[in-house]
Design goal:
Elements lengths: L1 E4 L15 E5 L4 H9 L3 H4 L5 E3 L20 E3 H7 L9 H8 L9 H12 L4 H9 L5 H7 L25 E3 L2 E3 L4 H7 L6 E4 L17 E3 L2 E6 L7 E3 L5 E3 L1 H7 L10 E5 L20 E6 L3 H17 L13 E6 L2 H4 L3 H9 L4 E6 L9 H7 L5 H8 L3 E6 L1 H16 L5 H14 L3 E5 L1
Parallel strand pairs: 13-14, 13-16, 14-15, 16-17
Antiparallel strand pairs: 1-9, 2-7, 2-12, 3-4, 5-6, 8-9, 10-11
Helix pairs in contact: 1-7, 4-5, 13-15, 15-16
């Protein structure tokens, strides 16, 4: 849970809507930044903490304008490596070829390093690149550490002006091979920027702690802001040869603490489920039942929808103190119930109150794997989908991996096609109609 400072206003808008997406730009770990700096030439290390002025000299009206990253105009190299450059990413083949020109041939292994980098970059050596980079998860600091001739400086040192700007360098020809001393400007031309990561928000603004008459906002430690929940699977493991690796953003988020100083670079944008029907009838129940189908961390936006419906129902004038049975359905799949069944206690509580029907598929807990599409197909004697959509006029939302989402959609088409007069053609038209009114949507990645 994060607390994000909001703007002070008498009637602030809702901080986000159920099903919205939080976009995060992570920060590189200090250990990785220190390591990559230690693998760069001494002339670069010496100015790592000095202010730099970065100017792109390519004319804005040329075809090469989009080829250069728009780095901050004023920064230090350490700041760029920490907040801007994707040094935890795996270098592409063309990146390795670009690095080959910076192998100093005055180094005892300089020529060998250059040949190896060129070999790794060749399309014909895809298996070599796969073994070295992909399977062993080698990032930029790993490559620079292995090819230390890039760090080695020959007879001519790289010079920097006193005002922090970078002076122009000439290409050398050493030992019969072209050698280019690595400079900060060359480094920034090779490195890519950190790309934003997108996470479906798992919380509901209406169900969060709130100030009086200000839904979705809260006051914590004297700061006015709002909370949101993310469901993030931490990527980490070991390669075949025992190398530790972890995902940049998942590691960054998992290391955040409530008392952490500093700020998280995060913003909210609309998701795919913004038009979920929320109208409550005279009997205190929703007019449109909802079926949510998800797997793994795909449960996040579905939890947001379910919690929002529960909060709206409790706040509605028509809801009584007696729990009303609700025909909402959750179909959730994961590998193992003990380790991957996210928000299990919440679902059990709602199910015990007859507010939610829960169907599960734990793929690795039986001899033959069980997935959500099979659970959908077999539930209620194979009639669950038809009853929910055709009889109950229900909505359906799917979230998770692209492969799972396609399989579930195909199952919907097949089941509906078996009962509709026009078969699967009619089923596809029906889903398109439901999608146009916000009663069918898929969020897949």
């Amino acid at each position: 849970t994060m607390d994000t400072t909001g703007s002070e206003s008498s009637t602030p808008p809702r901080p986000y809507m159920a099903g919205d997406i939080a976009t995060v730009i992570p920060t590189n770990p200090k250990s990785v930044v220190d390591r990559i700096l230690s693998c760069l030439p001494a002339s670069i290390q010496n100015v790592a903490n000095q202010p730099l002025k970065i100017v792109t000299s390519v004319m804005s009206n040329t075809q090469y304008k989009s080829c250069f990253t728009k780095w901050p105009n004023h920064a230090t190299l350490r700041g760029l490596l920490t907040y801007c450059t994707d040094i935890c990413n795996l270098p592409e083949r063309e990146d390795l070829r670009a690095l080959s020109f910076y192998c100093n041939t005055n180094h005892p292994s300089g020529m060998d390093h250059r040949k190896k980098l060129i070999a790794l970059s060749e399309p014909s050596s895809a298996s070599l690149y796969g073994d070295y980079i992909l399977r062993e998860k080698r990032n930029w600091s790993d490559v620079l550490f292995d090819f230390d001739s890039i760090q080695f400086e020959g007879t001519e040192q790289v010079n920097y002006e006193r005002n922090g700007s970078i002076s122009e360098q000439n290409t050398e020809n050493i030992g019969g091979a072209e050698y280019i001393p690595l400079t900060i400007e060359h480094l920034l031309m090779i490195l890519s920027p950190i790309m934003p990561r997108h996470f479906s928000i798992a919380s509901s603004p209406s169900s969060c702690n709130k100030l009086e008459d200000v839904p979705g906002y809260s006051l914590r430690n004297g700061k006015f802001g709002f909370e949101l929940d993310l469901c993030v699977a931490v990527v980490e493991g070991k390669t075949r040869y025992g190398r530790q690796y972890s995902g940049l953003c998942s590691r960054y988020l998992s290391h955040l603490r409530p008392s952490s100083e500093g700020h998280v670079r995060i913003w909210v944008r609309p998701g795919s489920f913004g038009r979920m029907p929320m109208k409550i009838n005279n009997y205190g129940s929703f007019e449109t039942p909802v079926m949510c189908v998800g797997a793994g961390t795909g449960i996040a936006p579905l939890r947001s929808l379910i919690r929002e419906r529960e909060a709206v129902w409790k706040l509605s004038e028509g809801s009584s103190e007696i729990e009303q049975a609700q025909s909402d359905i959750l179909v959730f799949g994961c590998r193992k119930a003990r380790s991957d069944y996210y928000y299990k206690l919440e679902w059990e509580l709602l199910q015990n109150k007859r507010r939610l029907r829960v169907l599960t598929a734990f793929s690795q807990e039986q001899r033959h794997k069980l997935y959500v599409q099979r659970v959908l197909r077999e539930a209620d004697g194979g009639l669950l989908i038809a009853k929910h959509i055709l009889e109950n006029n229900g909505a359906i939302y799917i979230a998770g991996g692209a492969k799972m989402a396609r399989a579930v959609k195909d199952e919907l088409i097949e089941c509906l096609g078996s009962v509709l007069p026009n078969g699967e053609k009619g089923a596809k038209k029906l889903l398109q109609k439901l999608q146009s009114v916000g009663k069918f949507s898929i969020e897949a990645w």
